[in-house]
Amino acid sequence: MGFVVIGLSACAQTVSLEPAESAADPACADIIVSLPVVLPSDADNQDIRQTDAQATAAWGSPASILLRCGIPPQGPTTLPCITINGIDWVEDDSNKPSYRYVTYGRVPTTEVIIDSSVVSGTSTLVDLGPVISKIPQTNKCLGAEDTLNIPTDAPSAG
Length: 158
What we know:
Blueprint lengths: L13 E2 L10 H9 L3 E2 L6 E6 L4 E4 L5 E7 L9 E4 L2 E9 L2 E6 L5 E7 L5 H12 L11 H4 L11
Parallel strand pairs: 1-3
Antiparallel strand pairs: 2-3, 3-4, 4-5, 5-9, 6-7, 7-8, 8-9
């Protein structure tokens, strides 16, 4: 997954993360400087934290939301793709209750990991949407129904 969180304690101020391979992309800088300082939560608000890697962000103490810009673009996948406020996200729930969301069709690509036991994934992605939308979408997620191109006026067999 690429995220490494090392030795966080209650008094730690900096969240240790690894930068993505395209973290130096200027579009990532546009995202990072525009991120919300607070992400609302059903429990306590999640305040932004300092990180030690370029094009990364974290919220909450302990960190319950991690963001990394500049990861390799998502290729074809069988993982579900959800669209929230016009942004396609590929959802990976293999590490529940932590969910990994990766933007689809936007380069540089952004990854968000959310601890769903602390915050709502949908609400977090809605709140991050205006910032993520700064990167233009060039492709959209397709479902199985999108790949079937069967004309409705085709003659029936027989």
